[in-house]
Every structure is written in structure tokens, then in C-alpha cells.
Specification:
The protein has 8 helices and 5 strands; from the N terminus they run H-H-H-H-H-E-E-H-E-E-H-E-H. The chain is mainly alpha-helical. It has 2 domains: 87 residues, Winged helix-like DNA-binding domain superfamily/Winged helix DNA-binding domain (Arc Repressor Mutant, subunit A, Orthogonal Bundle), CATH 1.10.10; 80 residues, no CATH class. The chain has a 3-stranded antiparallel beta sheet with strand order 4-3-5. A two-stranded antiparallel ribbon has the order 1-2. The protein starts with a helix and ends in a 13-residue tail after the last helix. Bound molecules: zinc ion (ZN). Zinc ion binds next to loops.
């Protein structure tokens, strides 16, 4: 597969887009889209291309840099000024998102383990979800809004969680396939390695 194509496909994944927006703000997917050909850009050029304030572009790049996704090369223009050429590590994006998705999968497993053999009650207005003993202590009233607490259908809930797990598993498989295809230039960039 052609490289710029895989870099573009990565951005079409919803979990990837949500993750980027969450860590670096709403501009992040748009900015990263410019790097699909593995090009380098200065914040000034990106600011012009996107018609966005340079401070917003810098904020986004710095937030991505902090997660090891955006990396830069410093280029001296003259004795006083430097230019920063940025690049994007697409592989790193995938690695972090896959890791997060696996954690989410394991959390759901834990939730199933905790809840499957107990009775749980929930507020119909979705304030809380608590086990039987605590619900009894509250007289089966929501401590937040005083609505009557309702018994949760655990079987239905577990089935729901299992569906979520299957969805995550499929998504991780898809992301892993992308990971096999993606490659980044590694030379001379300043990257955070966390
Ligand atoms: Zn409530």
C-alpha cells in the first residue's frame, strides 16, 4: 500500500481521531492530515495553510510532541533565528491508540468480573450505579436526585459489555494491520520518548 494512503487511512479511524482531539485539541486531526506524505512543515506554514492562529498551531504541535507524536528539527536561518521543521510519527499514534484500546478491553473484563454475580441498582437519571448493600443503605433512593433506584438487568448489561469488547477487539485487529504497513522517518528529529 502507498504510504500516504495508509497515513490517511489512520486518520479515518474514529478511535484515532477521538484520541488526537482529546490529547491535542480540535485542530490535531487537520494538522496531522497535512503530514500524510511524510512532509515537514513549520508552524508558520501550517498556520497559513489552515488559516489558524499560529499560537493554536504551536499549542497543538507541542501537545502532540509531549506524547511523542510530533517531532521537530531545528534549522538555523541566521545568527539570531531558528526555524522549526515538524514531522509526525504515524506509527507512534497507532502504538498509543492500540495500547489504550487494549487497556479499555481489560477494564471491561474487570467490570464483568465484578458485576456478574451481584445485584446492582441504578438511578434512572444516570447519577449513580451501586451494589445492593449500598442501595439498601440509601433506602433505594438516589443520594443525588432522590429518584427511586432501579434494579439493573445484569445479563443485559454483561451482553452489552461483551458487544463492546468484540467491537474493541475488531478495531485493535484493524489498527494492528495498519501498524504493519506504517513507517516513519527516524533521523535527526527531536522526539519525546514517553
Ligand atoms: Zn439520581
Amino acid at each position: 500500500m502507498v504510504k500516504n494512503k495508509i497515513n490517511k487511512i489512520i486518520l479515518e479511524d474514529k478511535t484515532v481521531c477521538d484520541f488526537l482531539t482529546q490529547i491535542a485539541g480540535p485542530l490535531a486531526p487537520n494538522i496531522i492530515d497535512f503530514f500524510k506524505n511524510d512532509s515537514e512543515y513549520t508552524p508558520e506554514i501550517l498556520s497559513k495553510k489552515l488559516n489558524e492562529k499560529i499560537t493554536n498551531v504551536r499549542f497543538t504541535l507541542n501537545s502532540l510532541h509531549y506524547r511523542g507524536i510530533a517531532c521537530y528539527k531545528r534549522k538555523k536561518i541566521d545568527n539570531k533565528f531558528c526555524e522549526f521543521n515538524w514531522t509526525i510519527k504515524h506509527k507512534k499514534i497507532l502504538e498509543i491508540v492500540i495500547e489504550q484500546q487494549i487497556e479499555k478491553y481489560q477494564e471491561l473484563d474487570k467490570v464483568i468480573g465484578e458485576k456478574k454475580d451481584r445485584d446492582y441498582f441504578a438511578c434512572p437519571k444516570k447519577c449513580i450505579e451501586i451494589p445492593f448493600e449500598i442501595s439498601a443503605a440509601y433506602n433505594f433512593k438516589c443520594p443525588n436526585c432522590n429518584s427511586n433506584l432501579e434494579l439493573i438487568d445484569i445479563k443485559k448489561m454483561v451482553a452489552n459489555i461483551k458487544r463492546k469488547k468484540t467491537k474493541i477487539k475488531k478495531n485493535v485487529e484493524k489498527l494492528n494491520k495498519m501498524l504493519q504497513l506504517v513507517g516513519d522517518k527516524d533521523s535527526d528529529y527531536v522526539c519525546e520518548s514517553i
